[in-house]
Specification:
- The complex is a heterodimer of chains A (about 160) and B (about 110).
- Chain A has about 160 residues and is α+β, with helices and mostly antiparallel strands.
- Chain A is built from four helices and five strands; from the N terminus they run βααββααββ.
- In chain A, about 30% of the residues lie in helices and about 30% in strands.
- In chain A, a hairpin with a 3-residue loop joins β4 and β5.
- The model of chain A has no long low-confidence stretch (mean pLDDT about 90).
- By secondary structure, chain B is α/β, with parallel strands linked by helices.
- Chain B has a five-stranded mixed beta sheet.
- The longest helix of chain B is centred in the first third of the chain and has 18 residues.
- Chain B is globular and about 30 Å long.
- The termini of chain B are far apart.
- At the A-B interface, α1, α2 and α4 of A face α1, α2 and α3 of B.
């Protein structure tokens, strides 16, 4: 009997970037364009690229609209992107803003923390629908980290 | 995000161009409302064929203009939504609330 166990090989990150942005609405378009350009290395379809742009845009918009709403234009958003050798692209969007008391509630479709602001309440629903996996970690007064994972058709 | 408008009979057409995100929506929503409130049309048409990006903030803008149109007694319809607009409207079920006009049915 062989003592060597067949072990599942862990996926390895083969490309990565980190970007720090001021939490301003004018950076929303810049952030999603960078995300799309990074994911383009995996030769995605037009629709997959549109999914990534939209999901990243939602996460960054949440930082601008909600996380730093009381910061008078100050605040930073850190975006980390990784491509894994199993064909996944992962984006981590992190802020050090106000955080969320009740993450589950905020994830509900049509819920908005800004009822005055003409928000649709669909941000997290869009992220969930357009990605394969959505992970949200948040602590009140500390900040929020959103992790978006999408598997793309091609391989590295 | 830019828009132009034209009026024919009782219909006000607003044609949007660019990326419909939070940044673009915030910059144009008041100007769009001002035109609707000033012209008091019976019908408001949002032409969206040249909107090449739309996220949930764009949905917020569509819902907001739908409400503004209602305040002047007008019906709002969407004309020629681009694929990103059509997709997100469908996801949110907004295609059930707002009538969509297409020159070619898909």
């Amino acid at each position: 009997m062989s003592a060597v166990k067949e072990r599942k090989k862990a996926a390895k990150a083969v490309e990565s970037f980190t970007l720090t942005l001021a939490a301003k609405s004018s950076n929303e378009g810049f952030a999603r364009t960078i995300a799309a350009a990074f994911a383009a290395r995996l030769d995605p379809t037009v629709e997959e690229l549109a999914d990534i742009k939209t999901a990243v845009s939602e996460a960054v918009t949440n930082c601008v609209v909600h996380a730093y709403k009381n910061s008078r234009g100050k605040g930073e958003i850190r975006i980390k992107g990784q491509i894994f050798d199993d064909g996944r692209v992962v984006f981590e969007i992190k802020d050090k803003g106000c955080g969320m008391e009740d993450v589950e509630k905020c994830l509900q479709p049509l819920y908005t923390g800004d009822p005055e602001g003409e928000r649709s309440g669909m941000g997290f629903t869009v992220m969930e629908s357009f990605c394969d996996k959505l992970k949200v970690r948040s602590k009140p007064e500390k900040g929020t980290t959103v992790v978006l994972t999408k598997r793309l058709g091609g391989n590295v | 995000m830019r828009f132009t408008h034209k009026t024919t009979k009782d219909t006000l057409t607003l044609s949007l161009t660019g990326e419909l995100d939070h940044h673009g929506a915030a910059a144009t929503r008041k100007a769009m409302d001002a035109v609707i409130l000033e012209q008091q049309p019976k019908k408001v048409v949002l032409e969206l064929k040249d909107v090449h990006f739309c996220d949930s903030s764009g949905l917020g803008l569509l819902m907001g203009r739908y409400k503004t149109a209602l305040t002047v007694g007008a019906v709002l319809t969407v004309k020629e939504p681009s694929p990103p607009v059509a997709r997100i409207m469908k996801l949110a079920g907004l295609d059930k609330l707002i009538k969509t006009e297409r020159s070619v049915e898909v």
